[in-house]
Amino acid sequence: MDNRLHELRHYLANYTPRIDAYYLPRTDAHQNKYIRERDNYVKFFSGFSGSEAEILVTKDEAILWTDGRYFIQAELELYDDWDLMKKGLCEMSPIDWLISIMPDRSHIAFDSILMTCEDALKFIDILTKAGFHVTALRKDFFAEIWLDRPLEPTHPISLLHISDHGLDSSSKISTVYSILGKKKCSSAIFTSLEEIAWLLNIRGADIPFTPVVFSIVILAHNGAHLFIDLRKLDEGTRRYLEKYVTIHEYDEAIEWIIDWNTRTSRLNLHKVILVVQVNFFLQVFLPSNINYLLASIIGPENSIIDQSPIQKLKAVKNETELEGMRHANSRDSRVVIEFLHGISTAIGKPNGDKITELSMIEYIDNLRSKAFSFLGLSFATIAAVDDHAALPHYHASAKTGKREVTKDSICLVDSGGHYIDGTTDVTRTFTFSDRVDDEFKHMFTLVLKGHIAAASLVFPKFTNGMRIDMIARQYLWAEGYDFIHGVGHGVGHALNVHEGPVQISYRNYNPCGAIEKGMVLTIEPGFYLEDEWGIRIENCYEVVSAENLRSGSNDYVAFRPLTLVPIQTSLIKKDLLTTSEITWINEYHQKCLHEHSYHFKAENKLDILQWLENACKPI
User: Fold this and answer.
1) Start-to-end C-alpha separation, the chain
2) Residue 270 pLDDT level (bands cut at 50, 70, 90)
3) What are the CA-CA distances from residue 113 to residues 119, 134, 144, 458, 578 (Å)?
4) pLDDT exceeding 90 applies to what percent of the chain?
5) How far is CA 292 from the centre of its chain?
6) DSSP string for 591-617
7) pLDDT confidence of residue 266
8) Which of 252, 255, 295 shows the shortest CA–CA distance to 120?
9) What does the alpha-carbon distance between residue 364 and residue 399 come to, in Å, rounded to a whole number?
């Protein structure tokens, strides 16, 4: 038995009251998708490094749940004493397993900072009704087991200039206070790191692939407070922030909130007594993704839980942010074009170095790192060859990434970057073969037709993203095919590459997922033939007002491409395309040429320009 699992069971057995089963999701106190290595408790105990997982540990069982993206990876990585539950293939969730397997009146525990309030309340309610005792642990017992746990990162935070963000923090904070007032709240607690970064116009380096800093913001009725590791603030940054917030040490947040809530509760009691004379609110607004510990400190009687207003404010970019996104995506598109040119040139050299998945990743990551205002990758680059590309979220490892790229390989590369002025996400599927299988061309064209259909759509503003998903799937569905991921997602401005609240996914309805002018979304349909190859075509798009409508209405929106990278036309079956689809492809490629020709000429990259001109020839 792995020693760390033994120590965890020993701790649970000696806890008072004894814990019979312990539930742990893969996340952190701020509910991040990408987490610090020091917060990856699931990996520490189980060995599994994927980004989606839940574990249950009892005295006899250790079980991990994950989804279809990670079945193979989990089977390879899990320590010997662990069992795998495959989501989508097994009917039993962690809660179902507990109810089915554990004896009545068992004590079930979870960590109160690693579950959202909403999820924790549901967890407690279902298990309590089933006859179990449920305990929300607050003590960080991991420190007693994980002795070599990585240290807290102390990277200094950076400030965005007004020319990059377009709206100062005082204006943003005032807007949020105004929204809180409409919700009958006088204060709020915000723990989403990307929302705090947007609110205060700061960026950090605490989380992989997301330029944020661990922090908590409280907008109290008498002023704003920021809790942050003070080691990350230089004198200039501190002076800047103190114009908008009172600064506290991050580790003081819990005790400060307890004390603040006690004082606020007394005021609430006073408010009830003097209700006739008093005309203000003392409810605390809590965003729906706040962790259970913080929500339980405030209590349901003093709070309102709803979707964070900052999420919507952040998703609808101002003109400065949009201009930055245009520039960032333009620069990033040239990186991808240079990459595609470089790979195609290297493949043609008879005595050149061998190209592998890992070397493709290294090459494109290096090109991107040299681009102007580069902050970091927006996610781990995916480079997948042949049957590896049939796994939608495959990541090359030291072992699997040695797969060689040959002239006849089918390659899928999904990559992106963060820049001071914006964030990018782009996928291209390509090959260098002159004898591509007809079935592959057929499926590539169906995927492209779906992409064009969604990208060409004119629709009423405030349409939910869920309703657009099927537009991109229609040609696959018509032949009985589908793909398992969503069609698209929001993209942040120098922030999270997967930004809410909008998703283009028929499987995930979000009542707050209305599409508005000023948002940036991806469109990325795909198709994956198991054990053979995969196809995905992904661009970033700006949501703009639809122009030249016969009605003259201003109530409709459309998509304008931000990603301008050629789509390989030799993979297209032209006889499957309509005239309007052919026009879309040719016009898109003309935009690529128009956007990039000057830059490649100015940089004397004439070989890349020639490649681009060939790639953009009309079909």
Assistant:
1) 62
2) very low
3) 11, 15, 17, 43, 53
4) 88
5) 22
6) HHHHHHHHHHHHTT-HHHHHHHHHHT-
7) 61
8) 295
9) 20
Total domains in the chain come to: 3
Looking at the domain assignment, is residue 368 inside a domain?
yes
Per the DSSP assignment, residues forming a β-bridge with 202 are 159
State whether residue 357 is helix, strand or coil.
Answer: helix
Whether 151 is in a domain gets the answer no
Per DSSP, which regions of 263-355 are E strands?
283-287, 303-306
User: Is position 451 within any domain?
Assistant: yes
- pLDDT value for 275: 43
Does 133 lie in the same domain as 18? Answer: yes
Tell me what pLDDT residue 348 has: 72
pLDDT at 268 (0 to 100): 55
Q: Which residue has the higher pLDDT, 319 or 276?
A: 319
The yes-or-no verdict on residue 279 having pLDDT over 60 is: no
- Half-sphere exposure for 537 (CA within 13 Å, toward CB): 26
Tokens representing residue 322 in the block: 């949009």
pLDDT tens digit string along 469-497?
999 999 999 999 999 899 999 999 999 99
Q: Residue 507's beta-bridge partner residues?
A: none
- Measured CA to CA, the distance from residue 39 to residue 52 in angstroms comes to 14
**Domain boundaries, position 515:** 316-615
Q: Can you tell me the distance from the alpha carbon of 336 to that of 411, in angstroms, rounded to the nearest whole number?
A: 14
Domain boundary among 308, 341, 371: 308
Same domain, 288 and 222: yes
Q: Compute CA 208 distance to the chain's CA centroid, rounded to the nearest angstrom.
A: 11
Residues 172 and 285 in one domain: yes
Pairing of the two strands 223-228 and 246-249: parallel
CB neighbours of residue 271 within 10 Å: 16
Q: Is the domain of 304 the same as that of 321?
A: no
Regarding whether 346 and 462 lie in a shared domain, the answer is: yes
Residue 273, pLDDT > 60, answer: no
Name the band, by pLDDT with cuts 50, 70 and 90, for residue 208: very high
Structure tokens at 255: 């005790």
How confident is the model over 230-265, as pLDDT tens digits? 999 999 999 999 999 999 999 999 999 999 999 876
Of 308, 327, 349, which one is at a domain's C-terminal end?
A: 308
CA-CA-CA-CA torsion sign (566, 570, 572, 578): positive
Write out the two tokens for 607: 């070989």
Q: What pLDDT, in 10s, does the model give residues 322-345?
A: 999 999 999 999 999 999 999 999
Least confident of 83-97, 134-148, 291-305: 134-148
> In 10 A of CB 130, how many CB atoms?
16
Judgement on whether residues 371 and 234 belong to the same structural domain of the protein: no
Q: Check whether residue 282 and residue 330 sit in a common domain.
A: no
Model confidence at 585: pLDDT above 50: yes
Assigned domain for 48 exists: yes
Q: Output the DSSP codes for 66-135.
A: E-GGGHHHHHHHS-TT-EEEEBTTBS--HHHHHHHHSPTT-EEEEETTSSBHHHHHHHHHHHHHTT-EEE
Dihedral Cα 597, 410, 447, 358, nearest 10 deg: -70
